[in-house]
Structure to design on (354 residues):
């Protein structure tokens, strides 16, 4: 069967197929990805009203791509108190009616296990209906190592303290050689997958990211997708796959060539085609820019993430995302791109179709 016949017949694609998809022209690739996307989601573009909070930037890890960590190039170390976090949320809940808080921290050995966990129960106490999406597999691995706990023990604590779902961060690129080069010493690929598997096995859901556009090759991206597809076959716990476009400012990974928009759109389209068992492909606008994230909706993506309000990780590396996007802007952007905006909750239940 040729590659085109496989696409026509919705056949499962191999590593070689995935790499070969990059050789198709963008419009042919886009046609198949869009067909798959429309079969799943019609004309809908999903988003949520959320707030990203990054409570500390002090980190014992040394990822070369990171511009957020205060141990690297960022001269302003900080660790928020729980009261600070709660007062930010007071404002976001009151003025912006957020339904989700997405909490991602650096790996701060001085903050303490309780500091990491207790904020979740405090959030739940003050805002019982707010969805808490928190603790990447990289943070869980850090907490387990630092405090001599098993992954199961950390996960049990997360559930006890009120975490609802896990974000997809820390996946970077699973290929061991590239990983060793870009984020030596951080959670390994096998550990990242194991942590999500344990979380899924408890009946909880999560997302999966991939950081691309740095030193990885196309086959590493496809390999990354296939490792996720294998796990999803076993657990069905991933809601969304999120290809994060690498931002190159203020870090130690000297990459001169920024990806072309064509390569970025192809990667969205290919992820839609390879990941036949993950329902949503998120074009996280903070890394792809809002313009390309909207175009990506015609190339396999169906989601934009959310209003985010404030963002510190990607904006530290050059993304224009520090101030978030207003609800009205998101609605207008989706509508003027010809799509139907659908506000969703964190688990993709539809809250409002505009
Ligand atoms: O894992 C770090 C990435 C991630 C850079 O689950 C960078 O819904 C680009 O995971 N250029 C954290 N990216 C953010 C994240 C995320 C974001 C939005 C939604 C969800 C979700 C998850 O940020 C890290 C890392 O891969 N990152 N540095 C950089 N220079």
């Amino acid at each position: 069967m040729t590659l085109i016949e496989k696409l026509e017949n919705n056949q499962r694609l191999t590593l070689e197929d995935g790499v070969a998809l990059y050789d198709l022209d963008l419009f042919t690739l886009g046609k198949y990805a869009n067909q798959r996307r429309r079969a799943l989601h019609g004309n809908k573009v999903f988003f949520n009203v959320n707030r990203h909070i990054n409570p500390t930037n002090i980190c014992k890890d040394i990822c070369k791509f990171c511009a957020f960590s205060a141990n690297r190039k960022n001269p302003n170390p900080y660790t928020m108190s729980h009261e600070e976090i709660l007062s930010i949320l007071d404002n976001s809940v009151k003025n912006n009616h957020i339904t989700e808080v997405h909490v991602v921290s650096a790996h701060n050995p001085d903050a303490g296990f309780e500091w990491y966990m207790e904020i979740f129960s405090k959030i739940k106490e003050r805002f019982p209906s707010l969805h808490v999406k928190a603790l990447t597999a990289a943070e869980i691995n850090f907490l387990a190592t630092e405090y001599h706990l098993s992954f199961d023990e950390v996960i049990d604590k997360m559930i006890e303290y009120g975490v609802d779902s896990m974000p997809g961060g820390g996946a970077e690129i699973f290929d061991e050689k590239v990983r060793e080069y870009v984020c030596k010493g951080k959670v390994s690929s096998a550990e990242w997958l194991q942590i999500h598997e344990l979380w899924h096995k408890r009946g909880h859901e999560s997302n999966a990211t991939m950081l691309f556009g740095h030193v990885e090759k196309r086959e590493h991206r496809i390999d990354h997708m296939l490792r996720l597809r294998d796990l999803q076959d076993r657990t069905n716990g991933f809601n969304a796959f999120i290809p994060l476009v690498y931002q190159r400012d203020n870090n130690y990974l000297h990459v001169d060539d920024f990806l072309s928009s064509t390569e970025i759109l192809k990667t969205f389209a290919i992820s839609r085609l390879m990941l036949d068992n993950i329902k949503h492909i998120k074009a996280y606008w903070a890394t792809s820019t809002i313009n390309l994230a909207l175009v990506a909706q015609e190339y396999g993506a169906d989601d934009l993430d959310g209003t985010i309000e404030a963002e510190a990780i990607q904006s530290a590396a050059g993304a224009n995302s520090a101030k978030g996007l207003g609800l009205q802007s998101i609605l207008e952007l989706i509508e003027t791109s010809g799509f139907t905006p659908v506000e969703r909750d964190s688990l993709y239940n539809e809250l409002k179709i505009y």
